[in-house]
Amino acid sequence: MTRLFAGTPTHGLVLLVLLLAALVAAPLIANDYLLTILILILYFAYAGQAWNIMMGFAGQLSLGHALYVGLGAYTASALYVHFGVAPWLGLLVAVPVAMLAGAVIGFLAFRFGVAGVYFAILTIAFAEFARIGFDHISYVGGSAGFFLPVAQYTQNDLWNLRGRPVMFYYVILALAALAFMLCHLLLRSRMGYFWQAIREDEEAARALGIDTFRYKMYAVVISAGMTAVAGVFFAFFYNNLFPEQVFHISRSIELILAPIIGGVGTLFGPIVGAFLLTGLSEAVTETLHALGFEIPGAKQVFYGICLLVVVMALPDGIWPWLARRLGLERRS
Amino acid sequence: MTALLSIAGVSKRFRGLVAVDRVSCEVEKGEIFAVIGPNGAGKTTLFSTIAGSLEPTEGEIRFLGERIDGLRPDEVCRRGVARTFQIVRPFPALTVEDNIMVGALLRTADTAKAAATAQDVMRRLDLFDKRDREAKSLTLPDRKRLEVARALATAPQLLLLDEVMAGLRPTETDRMVAILRELNAQGLTILLIEHVMRAVMALANRVLVLHHGAAIALGTPEVVTREPAVVQSYLGAEAL
Predict the structure, then answer these.
(1) Distance CA A207, CA A209 (A)
(2) Is residue A275 part of a domain?
(3) Spacing of C-alpha A110 from chain mean position
(4) B91 contacts A204? CB cut-off 8 A
(5) Residue B163: how many CA atoms within 13 Å on its side-chain side?
(6) What's the rounded Cα separation, in Å, for the pair A48 and A44?
(7) What is the pLDDT of residue A6?
(8) Fewest Cβ atoms nearer than 10 Å: which of A164, A179, A265, A271?
(9) Which domain holds residue A57?
């Protein structure tokens, strides 16, 4: 643990602990509505972290991460509904399924030199295949949707992920914290250095002995697996899945906004971005609602404005700027 | 005794164009071997076939007795042949230290050990004071040294330098020459492609001269620069 945070200024660690403490204590004062928003924020922080491994660390732009969310969600739900397999065990299948999908996409792209924009299009294509394909898989409801049994829960059943928002809140908080630590470790490992080298200049990376194909595959597979966990959570939290929604490209885009606004390639970027986007957009919607306005699409407009402002004013994202402000730049 | 690097009858053709034409030579362990020639003589193409970026059309390249022609660049590097790029390619957003760490991590998965290697390399190449600077903020001479440092961190037995002096002022050239001499004195074999004759004369034990893809002379710098064919094709009258 000491090495994990080596080079981070002390007041940075204090802030981190305070943030974590505030999040742990949040259910004491937050009602279910507020908790639901916090769950959404942490969900995007988690999924953004997973996407960031591919784009932020290894420089491979995926615009089809909804595929891994959907595969995770459908696999674990199907196992639960048809066989009564608890989601935690379902993960053992859902994660490898998504990893395999990632490996197939990665293999096709990296083996045949599909890179940059064309790689991004390939990721979209696979998510679209799944969207259309799942419409026709009646085993999981097809286009009519797939539903998990819902009841009024008085008790939280953590093993089956059935219960009240506060349980989901702690689950996603733990996942987000774990993802943060995992990404921190990855970034400071040999693999992290190799990823960054590939991101910066693939040919130069290869000249330094890095098997770029292999390390890009690792990035896709790890990212896909982590994203599938978000999918499992998503399924058990919302209890309904529609291919048209889950695999839709707007979901893939939604997933990557937090890390882009927060700062691509940074550890805190996805977290800061998720708080800002989801937190503020919910606040905007609520305020408009309270004032008696019902404006469909207000959230999307807000996302658009946020992106515009950040891209123009802080092209590296909010976190690098915030870190400088707080004096949190890494010293060695 | 087998040579460290042996190039036997290597040709590279691009459709009708013969870029490298049946070149053979051997680089002995511990020497500094230079390849010179006018623009378009095939120097960089020959270099790329050694480094694995291009596969020779015919011929064999052996390193420590093993064939390396046709291997990928990363495989060539792992066998102990590191290269630099003529147009430097640092990892711009990474610090100088992290740039070099990437090279050092080829030989160890332990980041602490790699950091120690990086520190050592930075000291040897006068980059230690700039270790926390992002590579994109460096001046050209610093970037050139970073290019060498990063390759050096992969612990090569043979260092391939592609016009590492190009664009340097004479004082910077002398500084680079001194650094390369020092590295060579510590046992590193160097193969360099160079236009700057001042550096070639100061460094090379032996020189191979290419012209239109073919080797026209091979020998010590003093001997080679007196060969009439070399003078005519490359050095020009003013060199005499």
Answers:
(1) 5
(2) no
(3) 23
(4) yes
(5) 17
(6) 6
(7) 65
(8) A164
(9) 44-247
Beta-ladder partners of B62? B6, B67
B85: chain A residues, CB-CB within 8 Å: 204, 207
Asked whether the beta carbons of B144 and B168 are under 8 A apart, the reply is yes
> Of A148, A154, A152, A165, nearest to A80 (Cα)?
A148
Nearest to A206 among B73, B111, B151 (CB): B73
**Residue A331 pLDDT:** 46
Enumerate the residues of chain B whose CB falls inside 8 A of the CB of residue A190: 105, 109, 111, 114
Per the CATH hierarchy, to which homologous superfamily does domain B5-80+156-239 belong?
P-loop containing nucleotide triphosphate hydrolases (3.40.50.300)
What ipTM is given for this predicted complex?
A: 0.93
CB neighbours of residue B125 within 10 Å? 25
A330: tokens are 């890494």
Shortest Cα distance from B19 to chain A (angstroms)?
A: 22
Q: Which amino acid is located at A323 in the chain?
A: A
> Mean pLDDT in each 10-residue stretch from start to end of chain A (332 residues)?
65 89 93 94 97 97 98 97 96 98 97 94 97 96 92 82 93 97 96 98 97 98 98 96 96 94 94 92 87 82 87 92 84 41
A218 assigned to some structural domain: yes
Contacts of A263 in chain B (CB under 8 A): none
Asked if the Cβ–Cβ distance from A206 to B109 is below 8 Å, we say: no
